[in-house]
């Protein structure tokens, strides 16, 4: 029986009428993405044909999902909204605060001890406000959502960029900051610029060593980390129907790495199989009644160039396995060509670790395909040359995989089975084999491979591949190993070759679990009190931000970030995750990973008041203490990566008034707006080069801040010379209202009080 089946039935009941109406208004056949978007308009029945990439639209998502690291700040904000209960079905999943070290049992025990204050807070807040709570060890948020909450044709937002994983089950699922989630939890509309549409036509069938992961690795190489910004990627074609549901989820999951708003697939037989296998036959039955509304219109897929803003075609018959990296997920290289490239670039060929799991590739099918390679190594007497780590996606998957003997295969290869949690994928990894910052290589089936991402070492070269390819590469211990053509020497000195991986889409005996880890909230939580100690290092009640005002002068340049500046650079994860519920403490990591264009060092900027150099947070705090605003300047795709709103809240907390960059990643730009800051882009990108280390900035026309009107900034250099720079913005009037009130949350509180 599905969660929230009545809500799902309600969506399906209104969908045909709304889609038919939207088709009439738009005047042409509709993509799946358009059908879902027009079905979920805040005002109900469609009345307007929206312009892609231009019109801001209010939506009514069906549900919300939060992971423990981001849920802390989201719920701290919701507690200020003045509501007794969340307005839509919401869940919290404890998966980020569990460090991988010794193995599942000791790691989970240690996490429950060290993070008990946070887990207890999340559990009690969830219980009070009617939020479903998934305990530590229950699984990774996106796999749990796919198994329990995702449904074809639905709309979901989540406080994690990989919320998009649910597109594998035909949803429009979008990663957002916590403030966006608070809007919807409080019963308000959620605003999004109507996305552009990228169509990916898949033909043929996967075979041999090629996996679903290779589809998105190929797409990432084509579109790059910013090519999907502001767009939904919709996959279709005969090749799409040949993929498993969890394979589709993998592809959608890594759509976050191309900046896409989300990715999705039309409802098909593989989704129906997955729904029935996960005890949701009732959803499958309802979906089958409106099946034609849960995929794009036939005319769209027959002539995609007429309906999508961009079309890519990939032939699965000829697609080759890839390994992407290092340091960026869009550096795509076919396996077999990587050795030559690695030698040219000086990348270490010896592979130290192979890591399988994460929200991207931790399904039953993923584990079976990787296990088929691991079993060959055991049977053929091949000793693995690298260490192995496995993160199952959920307790249901772990329990079922253990029952079916899959985990034992990995254990026979001396693999460490970690907790059903994110672990190394988000830097929650106590890697004992490193003695410093030595140059080394790892391979994993995760989604991101930014510098320092997995283990904090800037010299760890991480490469992204499918679970089965990761298994083969790790067994060989060589980055240049090509399992399709190369052989290995076993313990008897014999030359052996690995056979093609074999996977099982769904467990033949069905899924099973003793305790999935779910806690249902009480019906009435009004009697529950939420206590946060004022001396806590982990949690801190929020103080509303004060408006920045319509006159900002004498602001100081804090840092001019050079090159890639992701949310990992702005607000690191790893050991800093412990402070995600304490804004002041976590602000001590603000921008410490960003490279300063002046001196090309990290966490080393000039304090213009003293002339001395110090850490970015320290200098920002000094400016703030003296009543001086600061601004941050950045490069392209600033804020790429995680949805973490801490990357916006920390600068806001430390007195940063504006972030001026060449271009933004979508979620981060929205997060800045939500916190009442100025997110601006250079009208002329070359003006980035004019910014000098000792600059003082005056906003010349902030009192005229209005939609579609650029702002003018005066940069005064140390020698007294000046440059006037025009800065564009994408604020509409409601977003300018957030700025004027100090934050979107302040506006919610004001409206609720009136």
N-end to C-end Cα span: 41 Å
Major β-sheet profile: 7 strands, mixed, barrel
Please state the average pLDDT score.
96
Give a count of the beta strands, DSSP E runs of length 2 or more: 30
How do the strands of the widest beta sheet line up side by side? Answer: 22-25-26-27-30-29-28
Oligomer: single chain
Low-confidence spans: pLDDT under 50, at least 5 residues? none
| Overall helicity | 25-40%
Please state the CA-atom Rg, rounded to the nearest Å: 25 Å
Number of alpha- plus pi-helical segments: 25
In what range is the share of β-strand residues?
15-25%
General shape: globular
Helix and strand content put the structural class at: alpha/beta
Give a structural overview:
With 754 residues, the chain is α/β, with parallel strands linked by helices. The chain contains 25 helices and 30 strands. The strands form eight sheets. The protein has a seven-stranded mixed beta barrel. A hairpin with a 7-residue loop joins strand 12 (322-324) and strand 13. Helix 15 (364-379) crosses helix 17 (406-412). The protein is globular.
Topology:
Layout lengths: L4 H22 L5 H8 L16 E4 L3 E5 H11 L11 E4 L10 H11 L1 H14 L2 E3 L6 H8 L6 E4 L13 E4 L2 H8 L4 E4 L2 E8 L8 H12 L7 E6 L1 H4 L3 H9 L8 E4 L3 H9 L3 H9 L8 H5 L7 E6 L6 E3 L7 E3 L3 H8 L5 E6 L7 H16 L7 E4 L4 H9 L2 H7 L3 E2 L22 E5 L15 E5 L2 H10 L11 E2 L5 E2 L21 E2 L35 E6 L6 H4 L12 H4 L18 E2 L6 E2 L1 H10 L4 E5 L11 H8 L2 E6 L4 H9 L3 E5 L13 E4 L11 E6 L5 E7 L4 H9 L2 H10 L1
Parallel strand pairs: 2-3, 2-5, 3-4, 5-6, 8-9, 8-11, 9-10, 14-15, 14-17, 15-16, 17-18, 22-25, 25-26, 26-27
Antiparallel strand pairs: 1-7, 4-21, 12-13, 19-20, 22-28, 23-24, 27-30, 28-29, 29-30
Helix pairs in contact: 1-2, 1-12, 3-5, 3-7, 8-10, 11-12, 15-17, 15-18, 24-25
């Amino acid at each position: 029986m599905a969660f929230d089946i009545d809500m799902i039935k309600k969506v399906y009941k209104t969908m045909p009428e709304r889609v038919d109406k939207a088709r009439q208004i738009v005047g042409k056949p509709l993509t799946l993405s358009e059908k879902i978007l027009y079905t979920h308009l805040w005002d109900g029945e469609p009345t307007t044909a929206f312009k892609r990439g231009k019109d801001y639209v209010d939506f009514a998502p069906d549900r919300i999902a939060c992971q423990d690291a981001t849920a802390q700040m989201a719920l701290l904000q919701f507690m200020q909204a003045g509501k007794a209960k969340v307005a839509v079905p919401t869940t919290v999943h404890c998966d980020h605060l569990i460090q991988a070290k010794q193995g599942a049992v000791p790691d989970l025990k240690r996490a429950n001890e060290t993070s008990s204050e946070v887990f207890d807070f999340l559990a009690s807040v969830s219980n009070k406000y009617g939020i479903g709570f998934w305990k530590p060890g229950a699984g990774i948020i996106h796999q749990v959502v796919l198994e329990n909450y995702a449904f074809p044709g639905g709309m979901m937002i989540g406080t994690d960029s990989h919320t998009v994983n649910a597109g594998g089950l035909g949803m429009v699922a979008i990663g957002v900051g916590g403030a966006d989630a608070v809007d919807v939890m409080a019963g308000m509309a959620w605003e999004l610029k109507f996305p552009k549409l990228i169509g990916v036509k898949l033909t043929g069938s996967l075979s041999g060593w090629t996996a679903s992961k290779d589809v998105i690795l190929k797409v990432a190489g084509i579109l790059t980390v910013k090519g999907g910004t502001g767009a939904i990627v919709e996959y279709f074609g005969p090749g799409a129907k040949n993929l498993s549901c969890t394979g589709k989820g993998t592809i959608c999951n890594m759509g976050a790495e191309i900046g896409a708003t989300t990715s999705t697939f039309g409802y098909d037989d593989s989704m129906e199989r997955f729904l029935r296998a996960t005890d949701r036959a009732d959803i499958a039955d309802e979906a089958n009644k409106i099946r034609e509304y849960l995929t794009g219109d036939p005319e769209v897929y027959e002539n995609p160039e007429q309906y999508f803003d961009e079309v890519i075609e990939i032939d699965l018959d000829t697609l080759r396995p890839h390994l992407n990296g290092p340091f960026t997920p869009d550096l795509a290289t076919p396996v077999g060509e990587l050795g030559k490239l690695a030698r040219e670039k000086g990348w270490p060929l010896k592979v130290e670790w192979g890591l399988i799991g994460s929200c991207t590739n931790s399904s039953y099918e993923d584990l079976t395909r990787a296990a088929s390679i691991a079993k060959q190594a055991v049977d053929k007497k091949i000793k693995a040359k690298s260490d192995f780590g496995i993160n199952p996606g959920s307790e249901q998957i772990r329990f079922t995989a253990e029952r079916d003997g899959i985990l034992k295969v990995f254990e026979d290869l001396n693999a460490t089975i970690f907790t059903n949690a994110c672990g190394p994928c988000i830097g929650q990894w106590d890697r004992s084999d490193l003695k410093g910052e030595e140059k080394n290589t790892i391979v994993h089936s995760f989604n991101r491979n930014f510098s320092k991402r997995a283990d904090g070492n800037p010299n760890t070269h991480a490469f992204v591949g499918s679970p089965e390819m990761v298994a083969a590469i790790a067994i060989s211990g060589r980055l240049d190993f090509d399992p399709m053509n190369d052989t290995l020497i076993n313990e008897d000195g014999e030359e052996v070759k690995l056979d093609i991986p074999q996977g099982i889409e769904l467990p033949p005996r069905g899924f099973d679990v003793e305790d999935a880890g779910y806690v249902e909230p009480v019906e009435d939580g009004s009697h529950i009190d939420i206590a946060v100690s004022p001396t806590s290092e982990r949690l801190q009640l929020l103080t509303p931000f004060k408006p920045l005002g319509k006159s900002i002068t004498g602001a100081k340049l804090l840092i001019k970030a050079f090159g890639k500046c992701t949310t990992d650079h702005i607000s690191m994860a790893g050991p800093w995750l412990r402070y995600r519920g304490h804004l002041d403490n976590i602000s001590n990591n603000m921008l410490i990973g960003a490279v300063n264009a002046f001196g090309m060092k990290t966490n080393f900027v000039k304090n213009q008041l003293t002339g001395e150099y110090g850490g970015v947070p320290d200098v920002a705090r000094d400016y703030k203490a003296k009543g001086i605003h600061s601004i941050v300047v950045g490069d392209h795709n600033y804020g790429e990566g995680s949805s973490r709103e801490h990357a916006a809240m920390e600068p806001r907390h430390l007195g940063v008034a504006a972030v001026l960059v060449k271009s933004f990643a979508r979620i981060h730009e929205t997060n800045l707006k939500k916190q009442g800051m100025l997110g601006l882009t250079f009208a002329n990108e070359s003006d980035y080069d004019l910014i000098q280390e000792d600059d003082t900035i005056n906003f010349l026309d902030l009192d005229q801040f209005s939609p579609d009107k650029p702002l003018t900034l005066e940069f005064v250099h140390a020698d007294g010379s000046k440059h006037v720079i025009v800065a564009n913005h994408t604020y509409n009037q409601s977003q300018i209202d957030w700025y004027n009130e100090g934050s979107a949350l302040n506006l919610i509180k004001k409206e609720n009080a009136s």
